[in-house]
Amino acid sequence: MSAREWLGKDFYRELGVSPDASADEIKKAYRKLARENHPDANPGNAEAEKKFKAVSEAYGVLSDPEKRKEYDEARRLFGSGGAGGFGFPGGGAGGAGGVNLGDIFGSAAGGFGGLGDMLGNLFGRRGGTATASRGQRGADVETDVRIDFVEAVRGATLPLRLSSPAKCGTCGGNGARPGTQPRTCPVCGGVGLVNRSQGAFAFSEPCRECRGRGTVIDDPCPECGGEGVSTRTRTLTVRVPAGVDDNQRIRLAGQGEPGRGGAPAGDLYVRVHVNPHPLFGRSGNDLTITLPVDFSELALGATVTVPTLDSKVTVRIPPGTASGRVLRVRGKGITKRDGTQGDLLVTLQVVVPSKLDDQAARALRDYAEAVAKHDPRPEITALLRDRE
Asked: Which residue ranges make up each domain of the chain?
């Protein structure tokens, strides 16, 4: 979609957010609406498909800081009543409702092709020419996948079934019924802009006949309705790198929405969600595991066997080890593509038996008598003594 076409759309209303919404609020609203209206969840529902395309289009603009800035500037300039919104009659003296006039008259402002071109002959610059419609890069698309913990550690190759806007296969993206072609707009001559005068001032605005496209489609494509884009289901292969983090995004260049006017397609971002493991956790490149042990193993020392993701290792517990101590097993963590390798962190945790047989109970009482002179909490004992 070209920047000129933004003027006829309210992307904030499509997502149900306010114009000052944060990036996180915009993303949350898009995800909710995309799930509710996804074609896979609403087979045969044309309204849901239309809404899905609309929210995807809106998110593609509002999620990009530069595109959102251009869109907001366009709304301020043209959405508030023509020249009055520029800070002339009905506006402030300094400029267009907070828009710097130096920027307005400047050239080559991103997707607009220069707001100065859009304003055309403002302040008597009658020698200027409007810039023809330019191609617009396709919007980025985001989707989610869920993988197991082991797949996240080792990496995986996954098939991804995706329903998203893509170049219409029937018309090839030009929006016209096969066998016909779009014709040059007779009002703007294919430029996409028309010049208008208001009092002493002249300015340019998007052509209403062609909505700024520069072409008119007399016989729209039956599949895409003249948009040149239709929702298609496709299967992609996604390579998940070893060591991917939960909630990390993987970028697939050129796999997003198709561009307009020969511009490149957007990118596809795959957000990875990792299922937790029943035994192992993760801290950066390190794997973590909690190992239950007996008190005697900590007090006297022991050699224990600990599982890894691949096999097992033997770990020595020094005598007098405290519960909660972490032992490090080098090189048994996560190995990433850049060669960095993590460790296995083993947290020792004493398990207190819920029941003891007679022999164990006698042995434990004998132990308690043997260490009766040893106070395990001297600081607390001293504080209690001071308060007597």
From this structure: 137-182+217-276, 280-386
